Amino acid sequence: MTLAEPVVYEEVIGKSRFIAKAAPVASEEEALAFLEWASEREATHNPYAYRIGPLYRFSDDGEPSGTAGRPILHAIEAQGLDRVAVVVVRYFGGVKLGAGGLVRAYGGVAAEALRRAGKVPIVDWAEAAFLVPFAEVGAAYRALRGLSVAEEYREEGVLLRLRLPKDRLEALAQALTEATRGRVRRM
Fold it and tell me: How far is residue 123's CA from residue 135's CA, in Å, rounded to a whole number?
Protein backbone atom coordinates (compact mmCIF):
# COMPACT_ATOMS: atom_id res chain seq x y z
CA MET A 1 0.00 0.00 0.00
CA THR A 2 0.99 3.60 -0.50
CA LEU A 3 -0.64 6.95 0.17
CA ALA A 4 -3.49 8.13 -2.02
CA GLU A 5 -2.34 11.74 -1.71
CA PRO A 6 -0.04 13.97 0.36
CA VAL A 7 -1.00 14.59 3.99
CA VAL A 8 0.03 17.07 6.70
CA TYR A 9 -0.43 16.61 10.45
CA GLU A 10 0.67 19.01 13.17
CA GLU A 11 1.05 18.59 16.93
CA VAL A 12 2.64 20.57 19.77
CA ILE A 13 4.71 18.43 22.15
CA GLY A 14 6.66 19.99 25.03
CA LYS A 15 6.18 23.45 23.50
CA SER A 16 7.84 22.31 20.24
CA ARG A 17 5.78 22.36 17.08
CA PHE A 18 6.04 19.16 15.01
CA ILE A 19 4.65 19.16 11.46
CA ALA A 20 4.61 15.81 9.64
CA LYS A 21 4.35 15.97 5.87
CA ALA A 22 3.99 12.72 3.92
CA ALA A 23 3.50 11.91 0.25
CA PRO A 24 3.47 8.99 -2.16
CA VAL A 25 6.65 8.78 -4.25
CA ALA A 26 7.51 6.49 -7.15
CA SER A 27 11.29 6.94 -7.21
CA GLU A 28 14.21 8.17 -5.15
CA GLU A 29 14.28 11.32 -7.30
CA GLU A 30 10.63 12.02 -6.42
CA ALA A 31 11.36 11.38 -2.73
CA LEU A 32 14.29 13.81 -2.72
CA ALA A 33 12.25 16.45 -4.56
CA PHE A 34 9.40 16.07 -2.05
CA LEU A 35 11.80 16.32 0.91
CA GLU A 36 13.37 19.46 -0.55
CA TRP A 37 9.94 21.00 -1.07
CA ALA A 38 8.49 19.95 2.33
CA SER A 39 11.47 20.97 4.48
CA GLU A 40 11.27 24.40 6.07
CA ARG A 41 14.61 26.25 6.19
CA GLU A 42 13.61 28.35 9.19
CA ALA A 43 12.73 25.25 11.27
CA THR A 44 15.11 23.90 13.89
CA HIS A 45 15.18 20.38 12.36
CA ASN A 46 13.81 18.62 9.26
CA PRO A 47 14.43 14.90 9.80
CA TYR A 48 12.99 12.51 7.23
CA ALA A 49 12.63 8.96 6.02
CA TYR A 50 11.46 7.28 2.84
CA ARG A 51 10.94 3.74 1.59
CA ILE A 52 10.69 2.70 -2.05
CA GLY A 53 10.74 -1.08 -2.32
CA PRO A 54 14.03 -2.32 -0.84
CA LEU A 55 15.50 1.21 -0.91
CA TYR A 56 15.19 3.30 2.23
CA ARG A 57 16.92 6.34 3.67
CA PHE A 58 16.52 8.42 6.80
CA SER A 59 18.17 11.40 8.45
CA ASP A 60 18.09 12.82 11.98
CA ASP A 61 18.99 16.29 10.65
CA GLY A 62 20.95 17.35 13.72
CA GLU A 63 18.86 15.58 16.36
CA PRO A 64 20.72 13.00 18.49
CA SER A 65 21.48 9.85 16.49
CA GLY A 66 18.54 7.46 16.17
CA THR A 67 15.95 9.82 17.68
CA ALA A 68 14.23 11.17 14.56
CA GLY A 69 14.88 9.56 11.17
CA ARG A 70 14.71 5.94 12.31
CA PRO A 71 11.40 6.44 14.26
CA ILE A 72 9.91 8.07 11.14
CA LEU A 73 11.03 5.10 9.02
CA HIS A 74 9.58 2.75 11.65
CA ALA A 75 6.21 4.56 11.35
CA ILE A 76 6.24 3.92 7.58
CA GLU A 77 7.16 0.25 7.99
CA ALA A 78 4.78 -0.41 10.90
CA GLN A 79 1.84 0.56 8.70
CA GLY A 80 3.04 -1.65 5.85
CA LEU A 81 3.55 1.28 3.48
CA ASP A 82 5.85 1.51 0.49
CA ARG A 83 6.74 4.29 -1.93
CA VAL A 84 6.28 6.87 0.82
CA ALA A 85 8.37 9.85 1.97
CA VAL A 86 7.88 11.65 5.30
CA VAL A 87 9.53 14.76 6.70
CA VAL A 88 8.78 15.98 10.22
CA VAL A 89 9.52 19.66 10.65
CA ARG A 90 10.34 20.75 14.22
CA TYR A 91 10.24 24.24 15.62
CA PHE A 92 11.98 24.05 19.01
CA GLY A 93 9.82 25.40 21.82
CA GLY A 94 12.39 25.66 24.61
CA VAL A 95 11.74 22.35 26.40
CA LYS A 96 14.26 19.54 25.93
CA LEU A 97 12.43 16.25 25.37
CA GLY A 98 15.33 13.83 25.90
CA ALA A 99 16.14 10.93 23.60
CA GLY A 100 13.03 8.91 24.50
CA GLY A 101 10.79 11.95 24.14
CA LEU A 102 12.22 12.73 20.72
CA VAL A 103 11.72 9.15 19.53
CA ARG A 104 8.08 9.22 20.71
CA ALA A 105 7.46 12.68 19.26
CA TYR A 106 8.94 12.11 15.81
CA GLY A 107 7.64 8.57 15.47
CA GLY A 108 4.23 9.44 16.88
CA VAL A 109 3.63 12.49 14.71
CA ALA A 110 4.77 10.62 11.59
CA ALA A 111 2.57 7.63 12.47
CA GLU A 112 -0.49 9.81 13.08
CA ALA A 113 -0.03 11.60 9.75
CA LEU A 114 0.20 8.23 7.97
CA ARG A 115 -2.85 6.87 9.84
CA ARG A 116 -4.92 9.85 8.71
CA ALA A 117 -3.88 9.49 5.07
CA GLY A 118 -5.93 7.63 2.49
CA LYS A 119 -4.24 4.47 1.23
CA VAL A 120 -4.25 2.81 -2.17
CA PRO A 121 -2.78 -0.45 -3.41
CA ILE A 122 0.43 -0.22 -5.38
CA VAL A 123 -0.10 -1.13 -9.01
CA ASP A 124 2.89 -1.81 -11.22
CA TRP A 125 1.96 -0.87 -14.76
CA ALA A 126 3.22 -2.40 -17.97
CA GLU A 127 3.10 -1.06 -21.50
CA ALA A 128 2.52 -3.57 -24.27
CA ALA A 129 2.19 -3.56 -28.03
CA PHE A 130 0.67 -6.25 -30.24
CA LEU A 131 0.67 -6.41 -34.02
CA VAL A 132 -2.65 -7.83 -35.20
CA PRO A 133 -3.36 -8.81 -38.82
CA PHE A 134 -6.24 -6.82 -40.31
CA ALA A 135 -8.44 -9.93 -40.52
CA GLU A 136 -8.13 -10.50 -36.74
CA VAL A 137 -8.67 -6.94 -35.46
CA GLY A 138 -12.31 -7.55 -34.48
CA ALA A 139 -11.39 -10.64 -32.46
CA ALA A 140 -8.51 -8.76 -30.82
CA TYR A 141 -10.80 -5.91 -29.76
CA ARG A 142 -13.25 -8.38 -28.22
CA ALA A 143 -10.36 -9.77 -26.14
CA LEU A 144 -9.34 -6.23 -25.18
CA ARG A 145 -12.84 -5.17 -24.12
CA GLY A 146 -12.72 -2.45 -21.47
CA LEU A 147 -9.09 -1.45 -22.05
CA SER A 148 -7.92 1.81 -23.57
CA VAL A 149 -6.00 1.06 -26.76
CA ALA A 150 -3.99 3.26 -29.13
CA GLU A 151 -3.89 2.16 -32.76
CA GLU A 152 -1.17 2.53 -35.35
CA TYR A 153 -1.90 1.26 -38.85
CA ARG A 154 0.89 -0.56 -40.62
CA GLU A 155 1.22 -2.47 -43.85
CA GLU A 156 0.96 -5.88 -42.15
CA GLY A 157 -1.82 -4.99 -39.69
CA VAL A 158 -2.74 -2.78 -36.75
CA LEU A 159 -0.29 -2.15 -33.92
CA LEU A 160 -2.28 -1.96 -30.70
CA ARG A 161 -0.59 -0.22 -27.75
CA LEU A 162 -1.98 -0.39 -24.24
CA ARG A 163 -1.14 0.10 -20.59
CA LEU A 164 -2.40 -2.30 -17.96
CA PRO A 165 -1.46 -3.71 -14.55
CA LYS A 166 1.68 -5.80 -14.96
CA ASP A 167 0.12 -8.85 -13.31
CA ARG A 168 -2.56 -8.97 -16.06
CA LEU A 169 -0.17 -8.76 -19.02
CA GLU A 170 0.50 -12.47 -19.56
CA ALA A 171 -3.18 -13.40 -19.30
CA LEU A 172 -4.03 -10.71 -21.84
CA ALA A 173 -1.30 -11.90 -24.22
CA GLN A 174 -2.69 -15.44 -23.94
CA ALA A 175 -6.25 -14.22 -24.58
CA LEU A 176 -5.12 -12.31 -27.68
CA THR A 177 -3.23 -15.34 -28.97
CA GLU A 178 -6.33 -17.51 -28.57
CA ALA A 179 -8.69 -14.88 -30.03
CA THR A 180 -6.52 -14.41 -33.14
CA ARG A 181 -5.69 -18.11 -33.57
CA GLY A 182 -2.03 -17.40 -32.87
CA ARG A 183 -1.68 -14.71 -35.49
CA VAL A 184 -0.94 -11.84 -33.10
CA ARG A 185 2.69 -10.79 -32.57
CA ARG A 186 3.88 -9.20 -29.36
CA MET A 187 6.18 -6.27 -30.14
Answer: 34
Q: Which CATH superfamily is domain 2-120 in?
A: Impact, N-terminal domain (3.30.230.30)
DSSP string, 168-186: GHHHHHHHHHHHTTT--EE
For domain 125-186, give the CATH number. 3.30.70.240
- Residue spans of the domains in the chain: they are 2-120, 125-186
In angstroms, the CA 180 to CA 157 distance is 12
Q: DSSP per residue over 44-84, as a string?
A: SB--EEEEETTEEEEE-TTSSTTSSHHHHHHHHHHTT--SE
- pLDDT tens string 85-133: 999 999 999 999 999 999 999 999 999 999 999 999 998 889 999 999 9
Per-residue pLDDT, averaged over 171-182, amounts to 92
- 3-state class (DSSP) for residue 167: helix
Count of CA atoms in the C-beta half-sphere (13 A) of 173: 15
pLDDT value at residue 151: 94
SS3 155: coil
